[in-house]
Amino acid sequence: MITFWVAVLAISVLLYVLLDGFDLGVGMLSGIAGDEEQRSLMLSAVSPVWDGNETWLVVTAVVLWGAFPPVYAALLSAFYLPLLLMLAGLVLRGVAFEYRHRAVGSRWIWDTAFAGGSLVAAFIQGMMVGALVEGLPIADRQYAGGEFGWLSPFALLCGVGLCLGYALLGACWLVKKCEGDLRDEAYRLIPRLAISLLAFLVVVFVYALAAHLQVMDRWLERPYLLVFPLVGVASITGLAHGVIRRRDGVPFRMIALTFAAAFGTLAISFWPYMIPFSITIQDAAAPHSSLAFMFWGEGLFVFPLMLIYAAVNYSVFRGKIRSSEEHY
Amino acid sequence: MDLTALLLSRVQFAFTISFHIIFPSFTIGLAAWLTLLEALRLATGRTVYRVVFEFWLKIFGIAFGLGVVSGIVMGFQFGTNWSVFAGKVGPIQGVLLSYETFTAFFLEASFFGILLFGRPRVPPWFYLFSTAMVALGTTFSAFWIMINNSWMQVPVGYATANGQFAPDDWAAIIFSPVVWVRFPHMLLASYLTGASCVAGTGAWYLLRREYHAEARIMLRMGLFLAAVLVPVQLFFGHLVGDYVHDKQPAKFAAIEGRWHDEQPASEVLIALPDAAAETNHYAISVPILGSLIGSTSLTSKEIGLTDFPVQDRPPVAIPFFAFRIMVGCGFLMLFLAWYGSYLSVRERIGEKRWMLWAIFLGFPLPWIAILTGWFTAEVGRQPWIIYGVLRTAEAVTPSLTAREAIISLLVACTVYSFIFAFGIYYIHQLLRAGPAGRLIEPPVDAVPNRPMSVVHHQTATTVSAGD
Description:
The complex is a heterodimer. Chain A has 13 helices and four strands. Chain A is mainly α. A two-stranded antiparallel ribbon of chain A has the order 1-2. A two-stranded antiparallel sheet of chain A has the order 3-4. By secondary structure, chain B is mainly alpha-helical. Chain B has 15 helices and six strands. In chain B, β3 (267-274) and β4 form a beta hairpin. The interface between A and B is large, with 67 and 63 residues.
């Protein structure tokens, strides 16, 4: 039962990172778009799917609360201010989607809200992951680190890193969905973003070694972890290949694989902890009666249906968007 | 623990949840009413039902979207501000909330899309079925939330282990008698909200002499529904009062403004409660009525607040006044619904413009009743977050500071006002545009799970054919 809910949680988080990742990335890139037409096209490339993508964030939150209550309680209270900013960013960004093309004179407000909200949300998600890797002060299952206990150079670095990562996902999505100038523009961005991301990874790695982060010990204990970076390297190679050959579908798949590898790396380095190194999966799991009750309804029936629905939704909106569709 | 942070967290929760409940209470009622309209159209074949349906469906879309957005924040708030609570009750309340989310998603994913964009693609019976499923989905949502809150009022079916509440009898939790009086009470309140908004809009159009055919249907259906539902609601309200009397005596005493035991007890109609002096000023009371209401008896002894230690008493003023406002709204609605229905049946409502004005201006009555009813229930539960088991003061996030809480409260107020203002603006635009006589086919590129996207395409081109 516990394994099942860990799996559901992992799938939800990974889907959230991949799916909302690319639309947050497109949101950030819209901030540097050349002109109004490009911005409109960028929005069209994500508008049919973005709020379906955000569903996975809510699913993650409620599954975490029901199945692993102490983790939900500790994480959400630890990241009080960051979460607040992230939610405000996501809400403003969502509203901007709906209202921006009604406005004419004030369109810049919505454009700013869209790009800014995406940037804030992405940065904060990265920062929270960074703080988690570094370790949060937890005492007696409650967060005990003060208002800014999550703030550190490492966390900030990870925030920047995730912005780069999401922007890369976004650029690959644009390549997949768009044609013409916008696609070429995105192709030009991919190598720059990818190189920045790699540089970031090197810095993080050096920092982690220098700061003797506890997570690094895992790598010595579990050499099989190296599989994940290898997958990462392979997928980055695939990405380069796809970009050089201009194979539009390839970059997104490859970068998604890179993200999955990074997610796997983190998950296995944390294992068996959910909040490293204070709360384990076993400690956190709700009683069997709770997990079983969740399993026989939402777990067994609704969750698979949600996955199928997401897949159907993507297949309905597959293919390139055309510039003739001014806005969705 | 920071006392200011505690107070601010309570204010923030009260603000965000009050803001949120406005939308679901409306959409639950509206979804049920849309089902009825669609069924009537299939049965009678009259186009006007279809026109009214399409019109309200757009408004449903916006309200639904605002409900979803404001609901997301709720899912996080339990953890951010009430982490001790969240850690302890997650095995029960987190599970129930996850069911609510999954149910809501299931509704949004499958049937709401058909409602918005599927009319040309599915047979009529299936369209009706989809409408009913959306209504069922919103009802399920309310169901899980009412189980959740009822468990906080009267916790059952649990054991305590490792500082957590662990469920040991889900049947007891779900089939708790408290759920089954409070859930219908909330459901009826939602139906009344829908009915009142529909009737109010109909009255508004009649006052403006617009869309006569549609307005007549809205007004009559709204009034007739309310005429039937208000008395049922008053009955369920009485049943809810019974459970409070039996299970939450301190809350009951606060609502009644009863400070000392009385036998037989009088009923305080109105007064100014004074917690410091443990008495009421300017009270108007009816002898014996208190025993009659509390225990259906002429002689029963009714408990007063002074039976409870000061630290276990709820604040009196809020439950006392909120309850009276709620009941007042109930009786006002009863008058509007019955007299309005009578005039409608006699075909005389068009002449009584003051009555149309009253029905139009009375549209927020159910909302006021819902909010004050919830204030009564939630403030009356204090000082407990889980009645008799966990105190609100012990449930707040230990690391939360007043500075963090004030920042989040300000941000929540700003963002919510912002999206609310836009939502109201679009609903107002739709209402002004009126029911479209020419039926507009859904735009091909609109998106099922983005209800608000329809609005853009449809506000601009509306033509009246009702007159």
